[in-house]
Amino acid sequence: MYRCLKCKSLITEFIEGKVMCPHCGYRILIKLRPEVVKRVQAR
Which residue has the higher pLDDT, 40 or 16? Predict the structure, then answer.
């Protein structure tokens, strides 16, 4: 999932492989991180 930087809408699929917001046409998107926190034990 991605979020548009300009209009803050969620984007799940791209139209015809083009990386742009279908709502406002902005081309800068942020990839959302999963909510699960992964913990790794230090050695």
Answer: 40
